[in-house]
Amino acid sequence: MSEENATLDAYRSDLAHIHDVGFGRFAGAAARTVVDHLRARDVRCGLVVDIGCGGGIAARIFADAGYQVLGCDVSGASVGIARERVPEASFQVGSYVDLVVPPAVAVVTIGEVLNYVFDPRCDRSARQAFFRRLFRSLLPGGLFLLDVAGPSRAPRQPTRTFAEGDHWAVLVETAFELDLLTRQITTFVREGAFYRRDTETHRLRLYPAVEVVDDLQQAGFDVVQVDCYADVPLLDGMHGFLATKAAAGSPM
Questions:
Q1: Which of 41, 184, 223, 239 sits at 20 to 30 Å (Cα–Cα) from 12?
Q2: How many structural domains is the chain composed of?
Q3: 211, 114: one domain
Q4: Coiled-coil ranges per the record (predicted)?
Q5: In the predicted model, what is the mean pLDDT of residues 63-88?
Q6: Same domain as 80, residue 178
Q7: Residue 251 domain flag
Q8: Side by side, which strands form the sheet with 104-109?
């Protein structure tokens, strides 16, 4: 996947920074969940693929635990942060639709990655093909941790939320129309005596949990739904899944 051909305009530098410093708890908790499951199976080395890797918070945990890491994200700015945080890992810019997944012990796709439509090809058929590719690429006994935003993630009325941190603030206006959840995100990052402003529009398709479970099972996975990563509960309307590929010699 060539970075020169990656034209997806998502999580530009200011939002990538804010997301990294202010909203990293899910990534860290998801990484701890994966490491715990791998160690419980006595899998202490091998490749972990982090799709939607953001600034590399999870990748850092995987690398520190002794795993090789391949990260992928549609945001070039986020991948730049990840490369600085985890220089020993490999990272790519682009969509999961194009990602070639090498043989791996685990794959992680958390943070509503599969809902976003930055890439217009991202629909159910693309997701089904992605699941089939992952199943073939995972080593026997491998695991796949993922989440999606479901229909109940959509607000009944448009909402506005605000958060701020050290030298940054973000306003998110959320609405649901035409079968898409739309987030209008305005960022403010301090630059000297002033604040720099930027705006992004993110759109997500919402998927029922039962549909995702069916797609995973059709690809060959055993699936268990989860409502938290480590000690961090998922947000209202989010559905988490731990999908596994049977170990060699296991009864089907």
A1: 239
A2: 2
A3: yes
A4: none
A5: 98
A6: no
A7: no
A8: 90-93, 68-73, 47-51, 104-109, 138-149, 238-244, 222-226
Percentage of the chain lying above the pLDDT 70 cut: 95
Are residues 72 and 135 part of one domain?
yes
Domain of 112? 13-150+207-245
Whichever domain contains 181, its CATH number is 2.20.25.110
Q: Is residue 4 part of a domain?
A: no
Tokens coding 108 = 């992680």
pLDDT band at 6 (very low <50, low <70, confident <90, very high): very low
Q: Taking a C-beta distance cutoff of 8 angstroms, is the pair 131, 221 a contact?
A: yes
What is the Cα–Cα distance from 147 to 153, expressed in whole angstroms? 12
Tell me, yes or no, whether 123 lies in a domain. yes
CATH number for 48: 3.40.50.150
Specify if 215 maps to a domain: yes
